[in-house]
Specification:
- The complex is a heteropentamer, with two copies of chain A (259 residues), one copy of chain B (330 residues) and two copies of chain C (275 residues).
- Chain A has seven helices and ten strands.
- With 259 residues, chain A is α/β, with parallel strands linked by helices.
- Chain A is globular and about 60 Å long.
- In chain B, helix 5 links the parallel strand 6 and strand 7.
- The longest helix of chain B has 19 residues.
- Chain B is globular, with a radius of gyration of 19 Å.
- Chain C has one domain: MetI-like (MetI-like fold, Orthogonal Bundle), CATH 1.10.3720.10.
- In chain C, helix 3 runs antiparallel to helix 4, helix 3 runs parallel beside helix 6 and helix 3 crosses helix 9.
- The radius of gyration of chain C is 23 Å and the shape is globular.
- The chains are: A alpha/beta (259), B alpha/beta (330), C mainly alpha (275).
- At the C-D interface, helix 1, helix 4, helix 5, helix 6 and helix 7 of C face helix 1, helix 4, helix 5, helix 6 and helix 7 of D.
- Strand 7 of chain B pairs antiparallel with strand 1 of chain C, so a sheet runs across the interface.
- Bound molecules: adenosine-5'-triphosphate (ATP) (2 copies) and magnesium ion (2 copies).
Chain lengths: 259, 330, 275, 275, 259
């Protein structure tokens, strides 16, 4: 059975077609890496998976049911731009998801229950390397630190689908490798389905169990607007065969670079 | 200094409406031309502001009550001459109580009025007449523009006001007038005053004003169509209609005949009235905070009579122009 | 190399000097004007000398009024502040509720936003008669005038600020399972409180204005009452100190609210560009 | 699944209905109140019936005044609008200059910012006598009251908005060789103009308020003058239509300025979150 | 002669030491790649080179003269966060630098001179691939497009020193390769000196003629704040020897990843 099913989705903005004829069937527990040139509509695609925007045409089904019309806790997200809450400390940002879950009325815990939740958050904060900044506000963090915080925040509710929009772009290689390990561990442990937009092909191959590329078939300037991008490559990735992977990588790299 | 252009401030009030009428119908211009000067009447909505502007020197003259002439320009050191005593309030000011029958019922009530104005004076005189003191009531300063609405408010029970507001307030069925200015005739006067120095240097101004004033009064006093038309226009100007305006005129004693005006200005009554007014003013600190007694500001009357400090005369009742009009010498 | 003027920052002492300069000039201009007028008419009341200002201040602020037995300035201040604070608190509370639901809930916004916009345009002074009838002539109507005067501005400002919030934050909160109510309580409200307080600071001027107008219309004590009462005899020696005092009070409120904001909402300051 | 309320947007028809609803309720409440009062006292002037409102409107808006030969409402409107527009234009121009130099130049800010903050706290009504004496009783003083009333707010708002600009933009402009003056002209001003116009929209209410107050004290034509004139007769049948008319005018200004902003500054709209 | 000379520079924020004892001599026409873990002070270092901030101690000299106390057109910049002018179109954003240069009085050209400048900008706009978006406002561009615009804008005045803070982080590989070529061409043609912060070691090696890494010697949480980061690696890169490059890369990668 296919878990996420995208059929014939189009998306226009004010008459400008961004995406057209997007079809995709994703099995449960897939890690879909999404690549494609800048401005081709990758973020737009993620926004539709999130129900932040509606497709202009076509439908998206999850487990056979249409996507709920609004974001839910089953689909977590890390945006390209920073999306943590500026008025909460690192710890409070991470605890937010648990607090609203456990206190429906005021969305906030007190006393022992609060301490308990905060302790539970310590682990993931440590995992993203923000232990020393637990009590800082986002504006006191560097860009990369904010993004790591956003990742921790999105993971705390253990969503079934995780949408990542260039989540590791601002991280240095060391931290990035740690985050990759964290992602893979979580992915294996929880049976999560992940959609990740990235510009780093190596990352796409390293993490993904499947790689799709968005691109336009028509590239002449006067055609942009009238024709949108769609899925031009769709490769299942087998993590066990490094050679195949390298070959596929070269092929895709070539195609996506567009020359 | 001698000059030819003069500005007088006026505000809307039944007894003063002849002035704007005279201006619009060229009567002022006719008389000003006769003396080779020009006089402009400028309307100010806010009465106190018009006096303040005069006191600050922005106008050569202003239409004002006797008490305010004493307490604002005169007490402020601006030597002021009364050129014309236009009228006195003869029922134009009144004390109104809600659901009570006599003035004595006012005891202990909160009274809404324009504090330190002639309304306040009327209230003091009224209380005095039945042996009450001002401390037997408490006063709430209420803007004259809003006093009608205030009177309609459920928690207001006592109001002192002048026309046309007074008439509006009395229209309400549960309001009773318990005291009015017919009980103190002549004490609340409406005057045309001019800066003394200006008048001394330019007696023509006084003559032109007197000429225009009495001509207009004669016109409006007529009971024919022309007189009615004049009054109708004055009514419009003051924002009401002819019956409303006529009702206000009934309670205004206009000195239509210049002889009467001159006689009143020279009378002993006016000295007595001004003494009452200055006593009230002094008791309410209106002659200046530092004033040692009610004598600090001198008031001069025709024939050399002076109330208070003769070395500091700042308000002068002058019958010259009324007399000239009476003698037909203008 | 000479720096651009936009990059030159005055030092502490310079800042103090520059800040005081306009006030010194103002005082000088006043002194000259006053002296000139007093030369012409020693009794002139419009621009009293500093000596008579001093006398008036001593009289109203430091000695009891023989008629009423209270120190006028303090009695007036107490009465006015009570009305002002009450009006501000009610207006703020009301605006918080309406502004937030207007900003957050499209359905409520469709209903209330046009109404609030229109009410904000009504000059409240013109409707005083109706206010008097409905709310009486006592304290209540003065407080209501302040509320009617500033609440629509606060509501509109708050609504606009909420609409300016990055949409990602609301989306993020939803993906974390927050309900509308929880989003209001935990995402919108905490971020809006400091903005609301900033808006209240901007409303202090108008609030005083409405208070003074209300006191001018009907009162027996209060700063506005006194000013309009003594205006009857152009006692600028009392009016000017009262105006300075009102300005000072408003300024203290302003600074107190600013401090309060920085203290209670540290995250606001953390990200500010240094001035 | 039911959507969260924050995600539910009313349709066109619903929006229209919801927007009109509060007004319908208001009219209903008025009609009831009016009928009740008129039953007790048929001569009651406070809440006149719709019929007498209609009569009054016909009198002031559609027939020439026999005395002056003009239609009162139009004459009043023309006079008031002239004062208002002049006041708004002067206040805006002044605030633009002072707000921008205050926001951009630290040295000027150190000197003027405290002064502007303090002036914004002074209740201008209390200083009316001085204003009238300095600026005369003619048109000038009315315009000046509007300017004094709203300019400090505009200046402070502009200064704050400039300080909120991302510092990177100013740095970037400097690395492109722009001088202070060029930065003001090409980076700060163009981005601030739409904000300023938004601030002017917020000031429309106060501007009308000051205009009406000034006209109540010294004028012989104008909307505020008329209201003041008939107020002493409690002629609510004239006051209410005038208030509605003023509100309508203010609203038209507001909408016109909003449209103007969207039209002249397309980049503002391009990035807005849809409402 | 050394072109840029940084001697014993420290930077503190509110008593928290971010950078300490930074010493660096850079020859003219160098391409300095800067790497280091997130939050270690790379952006802070660039801000000091830009005169956006002053060192707490120590001095920075350019051609023997102290750094001007404010940003100048000799040092161009592309920030980590978007820094284009939101009220100008793509074309106007790029032309800005030329307009303020040629019209000192109003910073704006009209008529034929304006057309001329706009035409001159066309080339670089094409080079960063924004030809089709010449008349769009930044808010209508994707993140990557905005960043490309910022690069074109910074290059138009041909600064002698160019400061780049993760300029290519948001670009897809194809565009990124184009931008690399553009950078290298410009670098060779103009004798530019470049400081570029990046998280991508491959990019650092590919573009740089020298690579420096910032890091802390002390890493225990309680020591952060009391001790700052400093330059821990400083390698000249010879573009002609791929093997050496690969070896150095492995070494650095290991060190920077911190494990
Ligand atoms: N709200 C909007 N209105 C109009 N056009 C939009 C809007 N949002 C995005 N677009 C356009 O849609 C296209 C796709 O944008 P999107 O942000 O999805 O690209 P992307 O693939 O994520 O690019 P990048 O890799 O640079 O982030 C762009 O051409 C952009 O101009
Ligand atoms: N204005 C400031 N006030 C206080 N601390 C600051 C300020 N700016 C930066 N810092 C601190 O200085 C340190 C270095 O920040 P910087 O932005 O230079 O890091 P970075 O190396 O560029 O990180 P990244 O790779 O994530 O961009 C961080 O710990 C940050 O918290
Ligand atoms: Mg994107
Ligand atoms: Mg950085």
């Amino acid at each position: 059975m296919s878990h996420v099913s995208v059929s014939n989705v189009w998306k226009e903005y004010d008459g400008q077609i961004v995406l057209e004829r997007v079809n995709l069937e994703v099995k449960p527990h897939a890690f879909v890496s999404i690549v494609g040139p800048s401005g081709c509509g990758k973020s737009t695609f993620l926004r539709m998976l999130l129900s932040q925007e509606m497709p202009s045409r076509g439908s998206i089904l999850v487990d056979g049911a249409p996507l709920p019309p609004e974001p839910t806790e089953e689909r977590g997200v890390v945006f390209q731009r920073y999306s943590v809450f500026p008025h909460l400390t690192v710890l409070e940002n991470v605890a937010f998801g648990l607090e609203v879950q456990r206190s429906r009325l005021v969305g906030r815990l007190f006393g022992a229950r609060r301490r308990e939740v905060f302790e539970a958050c310590g682990e993931i904060i440590a995992a993203v390397g923000l232990d020393a900044a637990r009590d800082k506000y986002p504006s006191q963090l560097s860009g990369g630190m904010q993004q790591r915080l956003a990742i921790a925040q999105a993971l705390i509710r253990r969503p079934r689908i995780l949408l990542l929009d260039e989540p590791f772009g601002a991280l240095d290689p060391g931290i990035r490798a740690d985050m990759h390990d964290l992602m893979l561990t979580l992915f294996e442990e929880t049976g999560l389905t992940v959609f990740m937009v990235t510009h780093d092909l190596k990352e796409a191959f390293h993490l993904g169990t499947r790689l799709i590329a968005f691109d336009r078939y028509r590239r002449r300037p006067e055609e942009i607007g009238a024709y949108g991008a769609t899925i031009t490559f769709d490769l299942p990735l087998d993590r066990s065969s490094p050679r195949e992977k390298r070959e596929a990588m070269a092929e895709i790299g070539h195609a996506v670079a567009g020359n | 200094a001698e000059k030819t252009d003069f500005k007088i401030a006026w505000t809307i009030y039944a007894g003063w409406m002849p002035w704007p009428y005279a201006q619009e119908h060229g009567i002022v211009k006719k008389w000003a031309d006769k003396y080779g000067i020009s006089i402009e009447f400028q309307q100010i909505n806010d009465y106190v502001e018009s006096i303040n502007q005069y006191t600050a020197g922005k106008f050569d003259g202003v239409l004002v009550t006797n008490m305010d002439a004493l307490t604002i320009p005169a007490a402020g050191g601006v030597d002021t001459s009364v050129v014309l005593v236009g009228d006195y309030s003869n029922g134009n000011d009144g004390v109104v109580l809600k659901g009570a029958k006599s003035l004595a019922d006012i005891k202990g009530q909160k009274v809404n009025l324009v504090e330190l104005s002639v309304s306040h004076y009327l209230l003091a005189r009224g209380l005095d007449s039945i042996g009450l003191k001002e401390s037997d009531v408490s006063t709430v300063n209420t803007s004259d523009a809003d006093i009608v609405a205030a009177a309609a408010s459920p928690d207001v029970t006592a109001v002192v006001a002048w026309n046309p507001q007074l008439a509006e307030i009395k229209k309400s069925p549960d309001m009773t007038e318990v005291f009015d200015s017919t009980k103190i005739p002549g004490e609340i006067m409406d005057l045309a005053v001019v800066n003394t120095e200006t008048l001394k240097d330019n007696p023509k101004l006084g003559k032109a004003l007197a000429g225009a004033w009495f001509e207009t009064l004669a016109l409006m006093a007529r009971d024919d169509a022309e007189g009615k038309a004049a009054r109708e226009e004055m009514a419009k100007l003051s924002g009401t209609d002819l019956p409303g305006y006529d009702a206000q005129l009934k309670t205004t004693y206009l000195y239509t005949d210049p002889k009467d005006a001159a006689a009143f200005t020279r009378s002993d009554d006016i000295v007595k009235y001004m003494d009452l007014v200055r006593s009230f003013s002094f008791e309410h600190n209106l002659l200046g905070e530092g004033a040692a007694s009610k004598d600090v500001v001198g008031i001069a009357f025709p024939g050399g009579k002076v109330l208070g400090d003769a070395a500091n005369v700042k308000l002068r009742f002058d019958d010259t122009y009324e007399q000239l009009a009476a003698d037909g010498k203008l | 190399m000479a720096r651009r003027w936009i990059n030159r920052h005055p030092g502490r002492a310079e800042r103090l000097f520059l800040g005081l300069l306009p006030f010194l000039i103002l005082i000088l201009v006043y002194a000259t004007g006053s002296a000139m007028r007093l030369e012409v008419n020693p009794n002139d009341k419009l621009l009293p000398s500093f000596a008579s200002l001093g006398n008036a201040i001593a009289r109203v602020a430091f000695s009891t009024d023989p008629r009423t037995g209270v120190v006028l300035l303090w009695a007036d201040t107490a009465a006015s502040l009570e009305r002002l604070v009450l009006g501000l608190v009610i207006a703020t509370a009301l605006s918080l509720v309406i502004g937030v639901v207007n900003g957050v809930l499209p359905y409520v916004r469709a209903g209330l936003s046009p109404m609030v916009a229109i009410v904000s345009m009504i000059p409240p002074m013109a409707l005083l008669p109706v206010l008097f009838i409905v709310f009486g002539l006592d304290e209540l109507s003065k407080v209501v005038l302040i509320v009617i005067g500033i609440a629509p501005f606060l509501m509109r400002d708050l609504e606009a600020r909420i609409l300016e919030m990055p949409g990602e934050q609301l989306i993020k909160a939803q993906t974390l399972g927050a309900s509308s109510w929880q989003i209001v309580l935990r995402v919108v409200l905490p971020q809006m409180l400091p903005r609301l307080i900033d808006a209240v600071r901007l409303s202090l001027g108008p609030a005083w204005l409405f208070l003074i107008s209300a006191e001018a219309i009907a009162a027996d004590v209060g700063l506005g009452y006194r000013i309009f009462l003594v205006r009857r005899y152009l006692a600028m020696d009392v009016i000017l100190p009262y105006v300075v005092w009102i300005t000072l009070l408003a300024l203290i409120f302003d600074i107190a609210l600013k401090r309060f904001n920085a203290w209670v909402f540290p995250w606001m300051e953390a990200g500010r560009r240094s001035a």
